[in-house]
Write a structure and sequence with these properties.
This protein is of the alpha+beta class. It folds into two domains: 10-158, Creatinase/prolidase N-terminal domain (Creatine Amidinohydrolase, Chain A, domain 1, 3-Layer(aba) Sandwich); 160-375, Alpha-Beta Complex (Creatine Amidinohydrolase). It has helices spanning 10-26, 37-44, 77-81, 101-111, 132-142, 151-159, 163-186, 193-207, 268-287, 294-307; strands at residues 31-34, 59-63, 69-73, 87-91, 117-120, 146-149, 211-221, 240-250, 253-254, 257-262, 320-321, 328-331, 345-348, 351-355, 358-361, 364-369, 372-375.
Length: 387
Amino acid sequence: MGVPKRGFSDAEFAQRTESAQRLMKQYNIDLLWFSTEPEMRYFSGFQSQFWQSPTRPWFLLIPANGKPVAVIPAIGQSAFARTWLDDIRCWPSPQPTDEGLSLLLQSMKELCPAAGRIGTLMGRETHVRMPLADLDQLRSALGSRGLVDASDIVRTLRSIKSAAEIEKIRYCCDVASGVFEELPNWVSCGDSEQAIFRRFKVAMLQAGVDDVSYLVGGAASGGYDDIISPARELATKTGDVLILDTGSVFDGYFCDFDRNYAFGHVSSDVASTHELLWQATEAGFAAARPGVSAGHVYQAMHKVLQAGGGDVGNVGRMGHGLGIQLTESPSIAAFDDTPLKAGMVLTLEPGLAYAPHKMLVHEENIILHSDGAEYLSRRAPQAMPII
């Protein structure tokens, strides 16, 4: 497929803001306040690696009417001038005695009426990005204006992807699928995990992604017991099972799926477990339709794994939302009753233990349409590939 156009139109940012403002009225919220990168980027379009520095906080305010207002350190003024925003308020930073707090407070009082409600992220899988002491000081200084949870507003907005968002995720999935398919051609038994991971990153970048910001996995004899660690110097050997799980990025949007490979041969346990996970993914795919809950998709996969005798006792969820973050709401988990809707991008990620300290995980990316689901990642082989 062709490389998608970068960025978004001003009209799309305006639509996101207006949708937020409609929900603000429903929730009786007078002002939205964000301090985290995904929300800043979603409503403004500002992208920067500078978020990796903890020195400076960044703030975005969405009033009941009109465009968002940026309250940011002066180092970001030029970058923000290239976004669709007009009102960009800056302070010289770093300034430990007042790291934007007085400017933020002044702006909040201007944009939110006395005794008004200021919504921010307080729910699960969220955080506030500023010093706790500053947050305590801000709460006190707001007086009659109270902070309330606006997590539902953000989840509602970001869970449904626009056509432009889907195009970026689809492209990223397509690139990763191609690199995974070619991997057996440039990996050999005896290569170290680090060498394989390094080559994978290079291949992904050369194929067209912007960054391979998440790559975990490893190799071990007859299976693995860890899917979240970085690569080691250990050399692979015959009988090892290799997993690579990547969250790669194009224009700020993620793919997130894995692939498993065997060196030399596949044991009967590994082969049967891989087949069981493949079938569980098929069940999750068939169950994923608008109107059912995220928990319903989990139960469909869980049923297949249980029938196959798999140990799913330690599996907290079997997938999640995907987009501007590597993991988003909803969770494909028994506890999550979020109704699925057309436009949601999800991962299906069944996993199970099949022997002491041995497990396999399988993951695909899908998009929901009004009549069902579509794979964004190209489907993994039903039989585990052998290197």
